[in-house]
Design brief:
Elements: E1 2-7, H1 12-27, E2 31-34, H2 36-44, E3 72-77, H3 79-89, E4 94-98, H4 113-127, E5 132-135, E6 138-142, E7 145-146, E8 153-158, E9 167-173, E10 176-183, E11 185-190, H5 197-200, E12 213-218, E13 227-229, E14 235-240, E15 245-249, E16 253-257, E17 261-267, E18 272-275, H6 281-286
Parallel strand pairs: 1-2, 1-3, 3-4
Antiparallel strand pairs: 5-18, 6-7, 6-17, 8-11, 8-15, 9-10, 9-14, 11-12, 12-13, 14-17, 15-16
Helix pairs in contact: 1-4
Length: about 290
């Protein structure tokens, strides 16, 4: 049995909690893995217990891309930390511990973290898998590139935003023309990501149970309203008449494209599985105020 732990970068509280969870897991005969940054911060915060025999944390830490080797991944921090951990987790179930941010992806409070993680470990041992909720992700690709799947959103935008910038786009859904014209960009969000960048661009909130995607134009000249799509529909964004454009996955991973170019966005082959208690969507909404 292996559990991988990922702490929010630069957050001593997250590091301390990871240390507490690691100690209890090792006492339960669970092998603990941590990512490289968490390992370094554990040492710096003097939380690292330095087990001399397995099961125990890897002294040097592992790349976040390797956390998928665990049976369960635990992210301690905010939604950004969860997205970081999810990129490496693949289809390995991931549990989010919320340290006070809005936390749409983090259902577990810090006070309940240790016992909740141990409960899911027990469930894996008894039943072979933890409780999980499946969430769709988005895949963006071009003729010779593919971005890692996005749990929140994919954005196609100009190199700069604002008057005199942006880009000219043509947006098609399953081949049918939806909109065209000049805009700062085009954003396709999952239901999960509807509460993130999409919301700041005046896109609608979508309950996670809907399972669809929402297409939002960013400061479009024509003022086209957002569109909620079924998860199996494919969006194609054609970029023209602009010197530069960029495609961004979950606000972090970027691909520069040279117009004219087509960007295809569709449901990713692999979803994310959130482990542990169900997410309380409406409680998280209350923290937006």
């Amino acid at each position: 049995m292996k559990v991988a732990l990922v702490a929010q970068r630069g957050n001593p509280r997250a590091v301390s909690l990871v240390g507490d969870v690691a100690e209890r897991l090792r006492a339960a005969d669970v092998e603990v893995l941590v990512d490289e940054n968490t390992s370094a911060e554990l040492e710096r915060e003097a939380v690292w217990s330095g087990a001399t025999s397995p099961p125990g944390p890897s002294p040097e830490g592992i790349a976040v891309s390797e956390v998928s080797a665990a049976d369960l991944v635990v992210s301690v921090g905010g939604d950004g930390t969860f997205l970081f951990a999810a990129r490496g987790a693949g289809t390995t179930p991931i549990m989010g511990v919320n340290l006070g941010e809005v936390g749409f992806l983090n259902a577990v409070s810090p006070e309940a973290a240790v016992e909740t993680v141990l409960a899911e470990v027990g469930r894996i041992r008894e039943e072979g898998a933890p409780r999980t909720t499946k969430l769709h992700r988005l895949a963006a690709s071009g003729p010779d590139w593919t971005l890692p799947p996005a749990l929140n959103e994919v954005v196609v935008q100009g190199a700069r935003r604002g008057p005199g910038h942006g880009l000219s786009v043509e947006v098609r859904v399953d081949g049918a023309l939806f909109s065209s014209g000049h805009a700062d960009g085009v954003l396709l969000a999952t239901a999960t990501g509807s509460t993130a960048y999409n919301l700041s661009e005046d896109g609608p909130l979508v309950h996670p149970a809907v399972g669809g995607f929402v297409l939002t134009q960013m400061c479009g000249v024509e003022g086209t309203p957002s569109l909620v799509l079924e998860p199996d529909q494919t969006v194609t964004v054609r970029v023209d008449d602009t010197p530069e454009a960029v495609v961004v996955s979950d606000g972090r991973i970027r691909e520069e494209v040279d117009p004219p170019a087509n960007v295809t966005i569709e449901r990713a082959a692999e979803p994310v599985y959130i482990a542990g208690p169900p997410l309380d969507f409406f409680t998280a909404l209350g923290k937006l105020d």
